[in-house]
Design brief:
Keywords: Heme, Iron, Lyase, Metal-binding, Oxidoreductase, Peroxidase, Signal. It is found in: Cell envelope. Belongs to the DyP-type peroxidase family. The chain is of the alpha+beta class and 426 residues long. The protein has helices at 8-12, 22-26, 57-62, 100-118, 147-152, 192-205, 252-256, 282-285, 290-297, 334-337, 382-392, 421-424; strands at 86-94, 140-145, 183-189, 210-219, 271-280, 349-350, 353-359, 365-375, 399-409. The chain has one domain (18-51, 61-426). The protein has 12 helices and 9 strands. Helix 4 (100-118) runs antiparallel to helix 6 (192-205).
């Protein structure tokens, strides 16, 4: 609250216009998310997924702070919420002696804090005031459970079968200290201070119950940074996210969310998040010429269109050959190998952040992708695609998977509930 009892959100005025389709500006998804009832956004008729009314781009840039994502809903926020410009991924391990009761109390505190933070409100009398001058700024907070959480809390019988450890891949160079964890939190916001404020509040709320195992910071293109909404680019300069499944797809929910009659019942409306820290070997990548880079990806760097022609959304002609008799899109091109129709229909919703953690001892950038993908079943979503990429993706020479995690993310909390209540109190 401000000194006179007015919230940060009310102080800014949520009637301000957003005007931009933040899903496209946020980028990794590559489309403007059209919310449906209970998806964690504030207005099912607003294709930005945030509060506010239409206006000019200039007005939208001035009112980004007023955009609000709803905490309560059928699904947790941060899954189909348009990707934000700043993100934090954090894994926690429960402290020794912590059990189911203490874990439930923590999720109750975290949920209450997230609801207030996402509304642009301070979390309590000990609020740090870091975000005092900002509105909600499209803040979303997402909570998940790692496989180890269930054994630590005596809930082994309630652990989903889909939470089996991911298989080993030949491209893995995993740091176990930065992988997995009992609990996982994803934070996204369109203001860095708002995102950090949420990170700090949740870390403080976990004191004595859970300690940080690892934490990673990421970013995306800011809404309004381009002349018109468009798919973002990754740190290799490539348009990234063109073939993501879209909420308008008839089988979107089936692919991304656990059904109401799914197993286990407490995961209804939830999803599974695969998290991978993928370092891009940018020095090696940038030694390639433009045509070589495009051959590795299978798409034009300029606009993301397939090498066979058209625009970004044009279906590539995988059998098309050039004057030399060779297929135009190489057999090991990333765009070819990762296509759902090349992987038995396997699909996942990619919602990553880029990262840059300085330079290593050799002066090479420690930068790349904080890959986060969502699916109803990782063994049918992520695993088949990664296995295919592992066997012959041309891009593999220029990336290194350095950390990994798999988390069960339950459905959203109804009014009066906290996230995970159906697991912890069921």
């Amino acid at each position: 609250m401000t000194d006179n009892g007015i919230s940060r959100r009310r102080l800014l005025g949520t009637a301000g216009a957003t005007g931009l389709a933040l899903g496209a500006a946020g980028g990794a998804v590559g489309y403007a998310v059209a919310p449906s009832a209970g998806d964690g956004t504030s207005d099912a008729s607003d294709t930005s997924g945030t509060s506010g009314t239409s206006g000019s781009s200039k007005a939208a840039l001035a009112s980004l702070g007023a955009d609000e994502v709803m905490f309560h809903g059928k699904h947790q926020s941060g899954i189909i919420t348009p990707p934000q410009s700043r993100g934090h991924l954090i894994a926690f391990d429960l402290s020794p002696g912590t059990g189911r009761k203490e874990a439930a109390a923590l999720l109750r505190r975290w949920s209450a804090a997230a609801e207030r933070l996402m509304a642009g409100e301070p979390v309590g009398s000990d609020d740090t005031a870091v975000a005092r001058d900002a509105g909600p700024s499209s803040l979303s907070v997402t909570f998940g459970f790692g496989a180890s959480f269930f054994s630590r809390t005596g809930l082994e019988k309630r652990r989903p079968t889909a939470l089996e450890p991911l298989p080993d891949f030949s491209s893995d160079h995993l740091d176990k200290a930065r992988s997995n964890g009992d609990l996982w939190v994803q934070i996204g916001a369109n203001d860095p201070l708002v995102a950090f404020h949420a990170l700090r509040a949740l870390q403080k709320a976990a004191a004595g119950v859970a300690r940080v195992r690892w934490q990673m910071n990421g970013f995306n293109r800011s809404p309004g940074a381009t002349a018109h909404p468009m798919t973002t680019r990754n740190l290799m300069g490539q348009v990234d996210g063109t073939n993501n499944p879209k909420p308008a797809d008839k089988d979107f929910d089936k692919r991304i969310f656990v059904p109401a009659d799914g197993d286990p019942a407490w995961m209804a409306g939830g999803s599974y998040a695969v998290v991978r820290r993928i370092r891009m070997l940018l020095d090696d990548w940038e030694k390639l010429g433009l045509k070589e880079q495009e051959a590795v990806i299978g798409r034009r760097k300029k606009d993301g269109s397939p090498l066979t022609g058209g625009k970004e959304t044009t279906e590539p002609e995988l059998e098309k050959t050039g004057p030399d008799g060779k297929v135009v899109i190489p057999l090991n091109a990333h765009a070819r190998i990762s296509r759902p129709d090349q992987n038995g229909g396997a699909a996942m919703l990619r919602r990553p952040f880029s990262y840059h953690d300085g330079f290593d001892a050799h002066g090479e950038p420690d930068a790349g992708l904080l890959f986060v993908c969502w699916q109803a079943d990782p063994m049918r979503g992520f695993v088949p695609v990664q296995r295919k990429l592992d066997r012959g993706d041309a891009l593999s020479e220029f990336i290194r998977h350095e950390a990994s995690g798999l988390f069960a993310v339950p459905g959203g909390a109804a009014k009066g509930e906290y996230v995970g209540q159906r697991l912890l109190e069921g």
